Amino acid sequence: MSLRILFTGGSGKAGRHVVPYLLDRGHTVVNIDRTPLDDPRVHNLVADITDAGQMFNALTAYAHLGELDEANGGPKPFDAVVHFAAIPRILVTPDNETYRVNAVGTYNVLEAATKLGVRKIVFASSETTYGICFAEGEVKPDFLPVTEDHPTDPIDSYAMSKVCNEATARAFAKRSGADIYGLRIGNVIEPHEYATYFPRYFDDPSLRRRNIFCYIDARDLGQIVDRCLATDGLGYQMFNAGNDHNSVDLTTAEIIEEFYPDVPVRGELGEYEALYSNRKIREMLGFVEEHPWHRYVTSPRLGE
What's the pLDDT tens digit per position in 67-101? Predict the structure, then answer.
């Protein structure tokens, strides 16, 4: 079914792949960003997520000029909101600005969407919420694989803003009854980045320790968002968004032996199964990985 979607942050690293994925499936997408997305199929609106009035206005606006011909008493309501807009990590803006933009912006988007009756919202959280990625020194997971019930315990402003956003989303879901699904997105890899980065990861797997060896292909992230939009009735949910395998060419057992010898392991793990678990998106959303790293780069160790 074709949906009318308001997408914030569609011009960012993840959004510029997720938006085309949604467009390819016949959805109408309005991209809210400070910089328009260069795709003739998308409708761009330059707006500031930290301005509550602009978010209410954007969600009650026409998607494009063509809708004027179909208008009958004003614009149609949006079917869904996908909220990706954010300061993307620490050390881009001062810490307080990172927290302000991400927390206030998310509040504004969720408030406008739920008060205007949008029943499906997908928002970007982060792998950093587990307190490992931007930790001072080395912090190890409490247990493996890292599932959605692992504690979120960060010290940095970016991850703190994302934990705040998860609590905000939970409250709006409880208040409105809308389906609000959050994605704890792993390290996003664009198609051209495999050749650049992955040989380095094979040579030095420790480069991936802070990411819990996770990666998410930007196009597979598009599928995850699409599966969220197609799956109704789950209420408030958090999902790890990662690919099926780790981002190095070691077996899962070898990674555990080298990097996590003292970390408890819960249950059985496949030979190359991701330590940043995506079981929940596979089981609840029907996600099927389409872009594993070994399709795009050769490992000298594995010969594939």
Answer: 999 877 889 999 999 999 999 999 999 999 999 99
Cβ-based neighbour number of residue 7 at 10 Å: 28
Question: For residues 82 and 8, is the Cβ–Cβ distance under 8 A?
Answer: yes
Q: What is the pLDDT of residues 18-41, one digit of tens each?
A: 999 999 999 999 999 999 999 999
Fold of 4-295: Rossmann fold (3.40.50)
What ranges do the domains of the chain cover?
A: 4-295
Residues 108-113: what's their mean pLDDT? Answer: 98
**Does the pLDDT value for residue 157 go beyond 90?**
yes
pLDDT in tens, 115-141: 999 999 999 999 999 999 999 999 999
**Site of tokens 């302000």:** 100
Q: What angle, rounded to 10 degrees, do the helices at 157-176 and 95-115 form?
A: 10
